[in-house]
Amino acid sequence: MKPNFSLRLRVFNLNCWGLPYVSKHRSDRMKRLGDFLNMESFDLALLEEVWSEQDFQCLKEKLSFTYPAAHYFRSGIIGSGLCVFSKHPIQEIIQHVYTLNGYPYMIHHGDWFCGKAVGLLVFHLSGLVLNAYVTHLHAEYSRQKDIYLAHRVAQAWELAQFIHHTSKKADVVLLCGDLNMHPKDLGCCLLREWTGLHDAYLETQDFKGFEEGYTMVPENHYVSQKDLEPFPCGIRIDYVLYKAVSGFCISCKSLKSTAGHGPYNGTPLSDHEALMATLCVRYSPLQQNPSFTYGPAGRLPLISVLREAWTELGLGIAQARWWAAFAGNVIGVGLLLLVLLCFLVAEERAREVAILLWTPNVGLVLGAGAVYLFHTQEARGLCRVQTELQHVLGREREAQDLSSEPQLALLLGQERGQN
Amino acid sequence: MKPNFSLRLRVFNLNCWGLPYVSKHRSDRMKRLGDFLNMESFDLALLEEVWSEQDFQCLKEKLSFTYPAAHYFRSGIIGSGLCVFSKHPIQEIIQHVYTLNGYPYMIHHGDWFCGKAVGLLVFHLSGLVLNAYVTHLHAEYSRQKDIYLAHRVAQAWELAQFIHHTSKKADVVLLCGDLNMHPKDLGCCLLREWTGLHDAYLETQDFKGFEEGYTMVPENHYVSQKDLEPFPCGIRIDYVLYKAVSGFCISCKSLKSTAGHGPYNGTPLSDHEALMATLCVRYSPLQQNPSFTYGPAGRLPLISVLREAWTELGLGIAQARWWAAFAGNVIGVGLLLLVLLCFLVAEERAREVAILLWTPNVGLVLGAGAVYLFHTQEARGLCRVQTELQHVLGREREAQDLSSEPQLALLLGQERGQN
C-alpha cells in the first residue's frame, strides 16, 4: 500500500418503504429513486424494505450501467427486503438470518414473515478490503410497551457478533441500515461497543439534515403522525456506521440526509429519510486497532452495556417461559376436554354437542402445541445469547483479576452475583 | 512466533446418540464417556447429539478438572446437540443455525425440531489462533430417495461459507462433526473444495480403525442393521477436517477410531464410532496459503462441484415450489368448500352436516396455509444458496476470461448456458 493512499467512498442508505399494495406511490418512488441513484453515481447504495423482488429487478435493470454489481438478499417468507447496488465488483457474499424475529401470530406486524437478516458484501478497492454490511432489525411498535425489546437486543448482539467474526481481515467495515433503535438504546450501544463502529452522524463535522440527525420526521407526509406522537420532532433509527482497522484510518467528510421531501424537493422517496455519506479512508501504518488499546477503564462502557443486555434478555426468557407454560396448561386442559367429550359420546349424552366440540378442541390443542414449541424455541434462543454475553463478561472478569480498577471490579462483581 | 514452534493437538469427536427415552443405556454410556475423556485428557472433545442439557451439565461437572472450559450450543426446540470440552480457555464463541433443516411435519425424523447448527470456538494457543468448528447436518434416512438432499447441500454450503468468512484471521482451522454425508457426496466435496479443508483419514499415515475409516459399522450392536443394509461393511459420515493458513503447516500424526465397541473393548460409547486425532502444527513462514496458489486447473474441481450443487438446488427449488403450489390449490378448494357450507347453512339444507364440516375445513385451510408458507420460505432459502453459488461461478468466469484453460471454459460455458 502506497504511503499516500487515500480512498473516497460515497455511500447511500435508504429504507425504501416498498411494501406492495400497502406503501403509497411505490412504483413512482422506486422510479425516482432509480433516477436519483443514476444521477448521483454513489460507490454503494444500500437499501432496505425493497420487499418486492420485482422492484429490485426493475432497479437493477435501470441502474445496470452506473452500478454494474447488485445483490438481493433472499430470506424468510416475504424476504429480508435488503439489497445493494455497487459501482465496484462484489467479491464475496454471505448473509445471516436472525434467529429471533418476533412472533408468527402477530400477523399485523409481519416482521416474523420477513426473515430479517444482515447481508455482507466484500469488496476489494485498490488493494483495500471493504466489508459492507446492510441490515434491518425488528420494528418497534410501541416504545412504552415494547414486547419485541428482547428480540431486538438479541438481534443487535447477533449482528455485532456476525460483524466481529467476519470482519477480522477487513481493512474497513461499513454498516448501513435501519436498526429500529434510537442512538442511546441498549441494542445500539451493545452493537457499537462490541464492534467498535463509529456513528457517521456523531463523527462528521459537516452534517446537513434535520437536527439530531432524525431519519423519520413529521415533515415527511408519508410518516404516520400517530406513530411519531411521542417524538414530535422526529427519531433517528437509520445509521451509517464505520471503522477502519490497524493500518488505516477512516473519517466521515460529510453526511447529508433528505429533509422530509425528495432529494431535490418534491415528494419524498420514502417514509424514512435517505442518508448520503462521503467517507475518506487513508493509509496510516501507525494507526493502532482501538480494540487492542483499551485499558480497563476503556472497557467500562462495554461491560456496563453487556450487563444491561444480560438483564434484559433475562426478562425476555422469563416472558417466553411464561408463555410456554401457559400453552402447556392449555394443552393439558384441551386434552382433558377431549377425554370428557369421548366419554359423553360413549355414554350417548349430549352426543351432537360433543361431536361438534371435538374438532375445535383438537384445533385448540394443536394451536397451543404450536405456541408451546415456538416459545420454547424463543427461550432457548434468548438463553443462547445470554450465555454468549456471559462468556464475554467472564473473559472480562479474568482480565479484571489481573487489573485493579475498582469501578470495573464493582461492575463485574455485580454480574457475578447475579449468575 | 519462534522458528521451531510446534504444537500437538489431541482431538476427540463423537456423535453421542444421547436422545432421552430413546437411546439405549444413555446414562451409562455418558458416564463411561466422561471417565474415558478424563483418562485420555484430550486438548479438545467435540460432541454431537448430546440432546439433553442435563447430560451436558453432568459431563461438565465430571470433566471440570481436566477440561476447565466447556460450552453447550443451544438452538431450536430440542437443541443443536453440540457441545465442547476444552483443556484450554475459550476466547470467543459464536454459532450459526442452518436456515434449512428438514420439514416440521416430518415429526418422526425430528431434525427440524433440533435447530441443527455449526458452533465456532476461538482459542489462542501459544500465540496461535485456532478456530474449532463443530457441527451436525441433517440425517440421511434413505439413500435411494433422499428428500433432504437439497437441504443437506444447502447446509454444507452454509457451513463452508461460515467457515470461509469467520476463519480469515485464524492460523489453524479444525472442523469436527457428523456431516451425515459419505466422503464423495456432493455436500462433502463442496465443503472441502470451498474451504480447502483436509480430511484427517485421507491425510494421515497412521490410521487405526475400520477399513475405509467407517464410523458406523454393523459390528456396533447399537447400530440399526436395517439402516446399514445398503452398506454391509459400514459408512463414514463422521469427520476430522483441518487446514493451516499462511505461515503454518498442519499434519495428522495419527487417527484412531473405536472399532464397534468401547475404547477399551466392552459396550460401545455410542452407535457411532469415536474419532481420536493427533494433529501437529508447525511454524512454516514459507508455507503459502493454497487458495492463493490455485491455477486455473486447480480450480476445476471447485467449479465442477459448484455446478453440480447449483443443479441439485434447482431440483430442490422445483420440488419446494410444487408443494407450495399444491398447498395453494388446497387452500383454494378449502375456501370454496367453506363458501358452499355457508350456503348450505343459509339455505337450511343439510345444516348439521354443514356445521359439522365447518371446523375441519377451517383446519384444512389453516394447515394448507402453513404448508404453503413453509415451502415458500424453503424455495426462497434454496434460491438464496443458488444465487451465492452462481456469484462464485460468475467470479470464476471472470477469472477464466483472463485465462485460456479449455476445460475450464467448457465447464463455465455449460453453467452460463443454464442460467
Automatic annotation (TrEMBL), chains A, B:
GO biological process, one term: sphingomyelin catabolic process
Annotated catalysed reactions: an N-(acyl)-sphingosylphosphocholine + H2O = an N-acyl-sphingoid base + phosphocholine + H(+); 1-hexadecanoyl-sn-glycero-3-phosphocholine + H2O = 1-hexadecanoyl-sn-glycerol + phosphocholine + H(+); a sphingosylphosphocholine + H2O = a sphingoid base + phosphocholine + H(+); 1-O-hexadecyl-sn-glycero-3-phosphocholine + H2O = 1-O-hexadecyl-sn-glycerol + phosphocholine + H(+)
InterPro entries, sorted: Endo/exonu/phosph_ase_sf (IPR036691), Endo/exonuclease/phosphatase (IPR005135), Sph/SMPD2-like (IPR038772)
Swiss-Prot/TrEMBL keywords: Hydrolase, Lipid metabolism, Magnesium, Membrane, Metal-binding, Sphingolipid metabolism, Transmembrane, Transmembrane helix
Residue spans crossing the bilayer: 322-346, 353-374
Localization in the cell: Membrane
Topology in the lipid bilayer: Multi-pass membrane protein
E.C. no: 3.1.4.12
GO CC annotations, alphabetized: plasma membrane
Pfam families: Exo_endo_phos
SUPFAM superfamilies: DNase I-like
Domain Endonuclease/exonuclease/phosphatase: 14-272
Keyword hit for Lipid metabolism: yes
Family the entry assigns: Belongs to the neutral sphingomyelinase family.
Name listed for the protein in its UniProt record: Sphingomyelin phosphodiesterase 2
